[in-house]
Amino acid sequence: MTGRVSVSMNDAILVGYRDKTYALDPRSPVDAHYIFMSHAHIDHLYGGVTKNLIASEETVKLARARGFDLPDPIQNQEVELLNSGHIVGSKSFLIPDEVFYTGDMALRPRAFLKAPKLPKAKALIIEATYGHRRYSFPSPASVVAEANKAISEMFSRGIPVILCGYALGKAQVLSYLFSTWSPIFVHESVGKMNEVCCSLGVPLDSHKSYSKAKDEGLLKKRPWILIAPSSLLRSGLISSLRKKYGAVTFSFSGWAVDKWFNGMSHIDYPFPLSDHCDYNDLVKVVKRVDPEKVYTVHGYAKEFSQALRRLGYDAHSLSSHQSNLVDFSE
Ligand SMILES: [Zn+2]
Ligand SMILES: [Zn+2]
To answer: Where does residue 171 fall: left (phi above 0), alpha (psi -120 to 50 degrees), or beta otherwise?
Structure first.
């Protein structure tokens, strides 16, 4: 049996198997029998799909809530979708024994997100967002403990805290992890995603929206917590809350390991809580899947493939704008 993995010029990973082609997380029109969407983050979504979509029900619902007009997903007997531990509904793609594509992946369980189970496969296509050795994350539990301690200090001084993370993914994890504090308000964009996730069975409390809290004069009663999307960190809204109420910003991201992230003036307290594997977890994934060939995508794809070659793996990075066709045979 022979399969092949190729990358097109259009930023799609193409897998050929038994006369069928699978486009993995394409970003633009692509000629393939099936389209796989791993999860509902914008950089993995493509709205032009009209049929033969392989995705979880959760991903399709979340994507629709984000304005992507997707068809209902289909079942495909050749393919298994496995939990990737990244965000609600995120999946890895497996053609049993042959090809495993991680999608975005996190090995460590956090909040309501479970650790993924890893299969063996001959070819592994792995995300390498944090595929550089300098990315080593502390355990989520220790980061949460540290953040709780910092919130407690702020609260004892009457200082409001703004918890920032991506509206889809991190914001639900934050909503869950810090639900013991009160009062908690959520920015509209976070509230909307929380609501969709609740409808999908994620156990999240419902919180008053920021604008309601503002209209009801609740922001004046300090302290409080606001959960806001990190996209708003530089916005007038956050800076006015910092000025007016003396609020401080806590930002949760794997990039908190980096100096440039810590040096940003609108982030008061960075916390390295990530929805991705760090470098060591990525190596762990490779070891457990035990592939004959590895292809790296995203982020530090090049550096990670080099590191894997030093570890003795047959590894290549699949960067965009590069045509690459590789055979793997039994
Ligand atoms: Zn993602
Ligand atoms: Zn991604």
So the answer is: alpha
